[in-house]
Amino acid sequence: MGNLAERAHGRWREILPALGIDAKALVNKHGPCPVCGGKDRFRFDDKNGSGSWFCNQGHGGEHDKAAGSAGNGVSLVMDFKQCSFPEAARLIEGIIGKADNDRPPTMPVVDEEQAARERYQQTIALWRSGIAIRSGDPADLYLRSRVGPYRATRALRLIPETVFAGRSMPALLSAYVDVHGELCGVQRTFLTADGQKAKGIEAPRWNTGTLPEGGAIRLASHDNTLGIAEGVETALAATALYGVPCWAALNAGRLEAWEPPEGVRNIVVFGDADLNYRGQQAAFNLAHRLSRKVQGRPERVVQVAIPDELGIDWNDVLKRDRLAA
Hints:
The chain has eleven helices and 13 strands. The chain has helices at 4-8, 12-18, 64-67, 73-81, 85-100, 112-128, 138-147, 232-242, 252-257, 278-290, 314-324; strands at residues 42-44, 53-55, 69-71, 156-164, 167-177, 183-190, 205-209, 225-229, 246-248, 266-270, 293-294, 297-298, 301-305.
């Protein structure tokens, strides 16, 4: 039968649509990303038949999007299905194994409602497996190392032990809710016991569930003033610097699509100063959309704050200022 990589070689335009990825995305030009939802940041170039691809926006956390995400056909299946390597291999085998046996190619029958229910149940179970963050635990040590003192929030938890890529480790859990405040997704930031980011794994962060546009990680309560940033650490840093309650949208694409809750009239968009200007673009696009007027009067007052150096975010600014103090 040969190994999986050899048998999948040159067949990714057959395999990926059979697993649910739109065939329109599998052309060698920029277009919508099947994973993160970015409108024109994804390109499938399939170099040497490897299924290679690149997404300028990134599929992970706040720093991943600056450098982008890239990989081969297997990693695209893992990102799209949000599954482990063994599970991705099983799915791919299910497609090419049929072809190897000279069976006519068929699209898999997928019960979308059942799949959505299972995904939701997995998300709820993951969140419920977390516990409140306590002083000195891995999540607390990690957050303090990144932003210093922070205000406790129900949007963050610690899972003392979670398995990813064959390894067991603690992780910071972040709850992503939709515009109605309903839990939809959970992001895991993998850690060491002493509160450092876990090393030696391909994805330092991993999202479970769905991340619908308009939603966010609601890190703080608010009145009529609220900030929005990309990553969790960036949002906490913005609060530490300016005293503004701030939520996290996770990446530039979701920052652009964020919807503020009712009653918020003063919004501060804390954009990243990306080298490719994606963070700045997202911040100003959001501000433009939220600054619409009703009957000639501003509905909201929207400000945009961008760090004064390229290649940094507000967490970097906070750490820089503390070192200079």
